[in-house]
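Bug: token stream looks shifted between consecutive jobs. Job 1:
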Amino acid sequence: MPAQLDAQQAMPWFGLTERILVHGSMLWVAVLAIVLLREEIDRRAMLLKASSSQYTAP
């Protein structure tokens, strides 16, 4: 592939490969964000539940 770049020859699959790599990394970031957000929501729900169970009505 680098030899074709140096010779300025057509590389029809290069664009597809580049798009797959870029979109794959973007998908990885999106999945990571979703996982982290879900964990944070679960953690906050547990804290809220624990704090409300400690409250006793007069």
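Job 2, same session, no restart:
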Amino acid sequence: MKFTQTFFTQTKDLRFLNGGWLSPKYHLMSWALSSSLIKKNHPNNQLELVTDSFGKNILIDELNLPYDSVNVALDDLDFEVSSDLWVLKKMFVHTLHEEPFLYLDSDVFIFGKLDEVLLQSDLIAQNKEINFNIYFPFVKKVLDDFDYPIEETSKYYRENKSWIACNKGITGGQNFNFFKAFFNFVLDFIKKNELHFKFLPSVFLNTSIEQFLFYQFAQSRNQEISYLLNKRFQPNYLGLNNFHEVPDRRSYLHLVMNNKRIHHNCEQLEKRLSYDFPKVYQKINDFFESKKTIKIPSKRNDDFYRTKLAIEKNVSIKKPNYIGRIETEKIEFVESDIIRLYEYEKEIAFIYKKLNTNNLINRNQLMEFEEVFLSNQDLTAFDVTLNPNVKRVKIDRKWVQKNDLNICIQFRETYEMFTKNNELDDVLLNYHPEQKLVGEYILLSEKLIFDWLERTNKINLHDLYDLIDDYCEATYKFYVKEILHEKIRFFIFQNILLITPTSDKML
């Protein structure tokens, strides 16, 4: 089976070619890691890139990514419909294949070989999506207003009062002609309802066309879809962004929606690329070094921008909620809040100035991580300590701007469990050398780990797991156990916790 990826460049200005990532650098690192992993784990399968001339120049001529063939079919490609419907280009590419194929998004990372049984399926997708609220506005608009709703778009909902789609982070199959029929169906559907499409909100519109209509069209044709992942996910796809869980706990990652704009996800992507494919990583760094005009986002110029906001009246701050969307929160404050906030930002500025050096990624750190977790090592042979450059502070959670862990909360009630009313939150401040900023992490259940570390300074890794297990059993918080086990890996991967050989084992 042929593997394929599509790179359509919506801009020819590299400064804005971020593909939804924090910066163009992470966008291209995503392409590099995704394609390199595909070729590493499937060396006998052809890997094709479909792009335009500008995309070819970047990924092939400049970066020399491991594609076996390139098709510049996207040059001057345009459809006589809304420019917001970029997904049509992606769907058009699927019609070009005259053989079985598997398409993979560039934010999909496969750390192993795909099941051959799956690759022999007629239709393939990542997983089924049941009643995701992102599709409902589209479904409702079609039912209420469209002149030609078409049976395939509404029949299942009318009969079952639910809406089902499938995530197409990977898609394809043996029935390649199905994708030609589906593309023609979508074009016809859009043409018949062209006026209504102009008034549809663009948020999630492309996703609805690509994934909701695909599932409904397959159902109407009695075509079975085989899924890579049969687990039921929530819209935030919790866990599929966890680089610190590969390859022993996860062999497949897909950074959907806002996950590409979370700082620690970008940092973990960079670490993984630098460790697994150091030559490719260096090539990307050299590429950006040669393009001096491309700015990589860094820390804000104003160290005290939040304090200044607090001094103003009627303050509102944009905050990410638990599935990664942006909401606006009104802030009420008193003078003591402003003083505390000033001290908090002063601490961040101090850490930044102290550690803002041209640090390179510590390959030894990742080697130690893999030695511990991927080689079935005896955990009693390693101790855990807190990185001395990490600072733990107290602050109201509403002021934490880079709230990475908050977006990834497994259970929202864990916040209530570990935080009393009106209690200030525990926040870790950790310098990110790759991005040259200070990451801010709200601690929930994870604060237990740091409480133990502060009391003992050093804990045997095996004993730390035992403490977690005993605590969860004694308090009947069994679902917290897996969260804490995963967070240990996260903090070690992020260099927040340091692992060293146990001194007894060295004697």
